[in-house]
Design goal:
- There is one protein chain.
- The chain has one domain.
- It is built from three helices and no strands.
- Helix 1 packs across helix 2, helix 1 crosses helix 3 and helix 2 crosses helix 3.
- The chain is globular and about 55 Å long.
Length: 108
């Protein structure tokens, strides 16, 4: 009988071990906002580098906090919570608000 090597923990678990949960959440949030910024640059609505990028930092932090709270409330695994953070960060406050309004209208 051969011994199998331990399974690879995956990217999110590796980041979590290296820099902790807060660092992993911030990386996911920054990746989400960077993806949004890239789509705006492709659509020629923003230059690649501008002072507007400074405003993406508090947005990323805020969406990381909101995504982490949502993941905890819904009892998601760490990996799913990090994905939720990235998606919410990509959507930003306006996109997240629009989704919540649609959800609330459907529930009413």
């Amino acid at each position: 009988m051969t011994d199998f090597p331990p399974p690879d923990p995956g990217l999110i678990e590796t980041l979590h071990r290296l820099i902790g949960g807060a660092g992993t959440a911030l990386i996911a949030a920054i990746a989400g906002r960077a993806s949004y910024h890239a789509s705006e640059v492709r659509a020629k609505r923003r230059p690649i580098l501008s002072w507007d990028l400074i405003w993406e930092i508090p947005t990323a932090v805020g969406m990381a906090i909101a995504g982490d709270a949502l993941g905890t409330y819904l009892e998601f695994s760490r990996e799913v919570t990090v994905g939720v953070i990235a998606v919410l960060s990509y959507l930003g406050p306006r996109g997240t608000g629009a989704i919540l309004e649609r959800w609330a209208a459907r529930k009413a």
